[in-house]
Write a structure and sequence with these properties.
mainly beta; nine-stranded antiparallel β-sheet; globular; DUF1996 domain-containing protein
Length: 334
């Protein structure tokens, strides 16, 4: 039994990976990131609060902090390492931790979350992590994207939801077969084989959680009071095409997280690429730059990514190795 901390909103996405004109499928960068820390810190939703409401797994640049003042605390200049395989990416990516509750005695243990095993399996089964995608439009007349500016951050999903509701976010789960563990499965995310809620049968290869962020930006605000309204999903489609509304005219790379095992019912994103690096890669996407292979970016050895960790700021036992009597922060099981 997995405690259902967060229920889900989901929108079944079009089969974007299948409908593209490219023989290789959609255009995207894909890379693994190792775990930077697990703690109750959230500079986006609870800036300055130590500890914040619930536990997150965080990956990316090691300048991650309870306060990340836009622009002045630019992770690409304040980090000394990144737990991501692409060495110029100091962005931070974080998701909710998942807890297993013992049916025998009611205690809790944190469920490991990890990257898929692409990129040579190097991050799979490490102490944790997740896989990041940056996707370009799959069809349409303008396949270019404009990369977010330093200081940009956004939130998707809703940790307060306890039932499936309307929403223009895309969060879904796939039950992986044993032989899908290395790749994390293939084909479009959030397709008809995926479910909004956790799978109800055992998943030998793990549970794959997908979190898809909006792809249109107002082009002006690095954040907004609800951390969401400066970005926008295309109506009816989580995996967006090329068009954006006039209110949010800038088509940005669509960020997607893939987490093996987690419920990941919301995702937080804080841009922190070295100047120009992501735009360079998005412009190069196509024949010579795709998925795990993009020569205009530098892959660092997995050992460097794995070595990039950060001590907790909110110091507490988050149940990685021990069984907890209650969820961190005393959060209720619902
Ligand atoms: C967090 O940021 C503050 C400045 O806002 C800085 O003084 C502090 O050293 C940082 N802490 C960590 C753990 O990086
Ligand atoms: C509670 O149950 C788990 C297994 O479900 C077990 O590993 C753990 O040791 C138990 N804890 C106590 C205090 O009995
Ligand atoms: C993949 O792993 C093999 C065997 O460990 C190694 O020889 C090879 O260099 C690796 N390739 C990359 C791209 O890391
Ligand atoms: C798209 O980007 C390429 C490469 O930077 C550029 O040559 C082209 O003009 C751009 N197209 C549009 C419609 O902006
Ligand atoms: C869902 O959205 C539709 C159309 O916007 C609206 O009519 C309906 O009331 C919404 N339902 C909920 C539960 O918010
Ligand atoms: C993001 O949302 C949180 C929680 O609602 C809020 O405290 C924070 O101020 C928001 N960020 C901005 C820039 O408004
Ligand atoms: C990673 O850390 C280990 C243990 O501290 C150390 O032996 C190793 O040299 C480090 N690797 C890199 C690439 O820094």
């Amino acid at each position: 039994m997995v405690s259902s901390l967060f229920a889900l909103v989901a929108l079944l996405a079009q089969d974007a990976f299948a409908q593209t004109g490219s023989a290789r499928g959609a255009n995207f960068l894909r890379f693994g990131c190792s775990q930077l820390s697990v703690e109750r810190i959230d500079p986006l939703v609870n800036p300055g609060l130590i500890p914040s409401a619930h536990t997150h797994q965080i990956v990316g640049g090691n300048s991650f902090n309870s306060t990340m003042t836009p622009v002045s605390q630019d992770p690409s200049t304040t980090s000394s390492c990144t737990s991501c395989k692409l060495s110029e990416d100091f962005s931070n990516y974080w998701t909710a931790s998942i807890y297993f509750q013992s049916p025998e005695n009611g205690t809790f243990k944190r469920v490991p979350q990890m990257a898929n095993g692409r990129l040579n399996g190097t991050l799979l089964e490490q102490d944790g992590g997740l896989t990041i995608y940056y996707m370009q439009p799959f069809s349409g007349t303008n396949l270019n994207v404009t990369v977010m500016s330093p200081g940009f951050r956004m939130l998707t999903g809703d940790p307060m939801l306890r039932s499936q509701a309307n929403g223009s976010v895309a969060i879904c789960h796939r039950c992986l077969a044993a032989n899908e563990r290395m790749t994390g499965g293939s084909g479009a995310p959030c397709s008809s084989t995926d479910t909004a809620s956790f799978p109800t049968t055992p998943c030998p290869g793990g549970i794959r959680a997908t979190v898809i962020f909006p792809s249109c930006w107002d082009g002006k605000n690095l954040d907004s009071p609800d951390n969401r309204s400066h970005v926008y999903y295309q109506p009816g489609s989580a995996l967006a095409g090329d068009a954006c509304p006039s209110s949010h005219p800038v088509r940005i790379p669509q960020v997607m997280y893939e987490i093996i095992t987690g419920y990941g019912a919301h995702g937080d994103y804080l841009f922190g690429w070295k100047a120009g690096a992501l735009q360079r890669a998005m412009n190069a996407l196509g024949t010579n730059c795709f998925s795990e292979t993009c020569p205009v970016l530098e892959l660092q050895p997995s050992s460097n990514a794995i070595n990039c960790t950060k001590p907790q700021q909110a110091v507490e036992d988050v149940g990685s190795d021990t069984w907890l009597k209650e969820l961190p922060g005393g959060m209720k099981v619902q």
